[in-house]
Design goal:
There is one protein chain. By secondary structure, this protein is of the alpha/beta class. The chain has a single domain, classed as TIM Barrel (Alpha-Beta Barrel), CATH 3.20.20.150. It has helices spanning about 1-15, 45-55, 70-75, 100-115, 135-145, 150-155, 175-185, 200-205, 210-215, 240-250, 270-280, and strands at about 35, 60-65, 80, 120-125, 155-160, 195-200, 220-225, 255-260. The strands form 2 sheets. The chain has a 6-stranded parallel β-sheet with strand order 1-8-7-6-5-4. Strands 2-3 form a two-stranded parallel ribbon. Helix 3 (about 70-75) links the parallel strand 2 (about 60-65) and strand 3 (about 80). Helix 5 (about 135-145) packs across helix 7 and helix 9 runs parallel beside helix 10 (about 240-250). The chain is globular and about 50 Å long. The N and C termini lie far apart (about 40 Å).
């Protein structure tokens, strides 16, 4: 126990060290819009975390709820993907019994996100349980359809994240790009409903990453990173070659965010984040 406490203390000290300790390097190139998921760095106080990522050239943080938005604004950062309206990853829009509650939650959050200048709110399918894929797709589209007029008026895009159901999220229904695209098709490709393509999750479920991204680019609003296996650093310790994926996004003219969503194993998580940003900054 003492060793773990010592390791955690050392990690926090490194993450909160003066900026002079970090080699900030050359400015970012500007072809990729970089963000980072807050939950991966939960051991670092948010105020400190905002200062560090601002120094690294980031302009946004993913998956920050309403209570923490003032801290982002204090540091001149935006929230590139708002969360907080969902019930859970396992209970989502594929269950019609949850639609009234979900609609109430999203109707509350969407205007607040818009008032703060944010553009995207995350949503989830929920677990498949006894549903067929066709039923889940229809149900999800039915629930989302109720929110689209409000989302359109507010300038908010509802973004469905596909997750892997093999390793991390057993039973999750929206576990392939094709499933997400089928929901888009049910909604007649409404511009206020798009997909979050998590590269880590889709490597596990389907591979063929660049071909899939090119095929479905019009539906993809946002990307997450993560090293496979393990969802750790995206460097040479794992199997996905991120620079070529980022180059494909640039070639496609992608203008959304790429958010780092790996769990740092390093004792200096900010150094790992900086490395990930540099890898993706093509």
């Amino acid at each position: 126990m003492q060793n773990r406490r010592t390791a955690l203390k050392q990690s926090i000290l490194l993450a909160t060290a003066p900026l002079s300790v970090l080699d900030e390097g050359s400015p970012l190139k500007g072809r990729i819009r970089h963000s980072v998921c807050r939950w991966c760095y939960g051991q670092i106080p948010l105020d400190t975390f905002c200062s560090r990522i601002k120094a690294l050239g980031l302009e946004a943080i993913d998956l920050v709820g309403e209570a923490d938005w003032p801290v982002l604004k204090k540091h001149g950062l935006t929230c590139s993907m708002v969360n907080g309206a969902e019930i859970s990853l396992t209970r989502g829009f594929n269950d019609p019994a949850l639609h009234d509650e979900l609609v109430r939650r999203y109707e509350d959050l969407i205007p607040k996100a818009a008032a703060n200048g944010y553009k995207q709110v995350i949503c989830f399918s929920g677990n498949q349980n006894s549903l067929s894929d066709e039923e889940g797709i229809r149900n999800m589209a039915s629930g989302i359809r109720r929110l689209l007029p409000l989302a359109e008026r507010a300038g908010i895009t509802l973004v469905l994240e596909m997750l892997n159901s093999r390793v991390d999220h057993k039973g999750y229904q929206a576990d392939t790009t094709e499933w997400g695209v089928a929901v888009c098709n049910q909604l007649e490709d409404h511009p206020n409903f798009k997909l979050l393509y998590d590269i880590y999750h889709m490597q596990i479920m389907e591979g063929d990453l660049i071909r899939t991204i090119r095929k479905h680019q019009k539906h993809l609003a946002h990307f997450h990173t993560g090293g496979n296996p393990g969802r750790n650093e995206i460097n040479q310790t794992q199997e996905i070659y991120y620079p070529i994926i980022m180059k494909a996004l640039v070639e496609l003219g992608f203008k959304g965010y790429v958010a780092q969503e790996f769990i740092p194993k390093s004792k200096n998580p900010i150094a790992s984040l900086q490395e990930g940003i540099r890898i993706c900054d093509v």
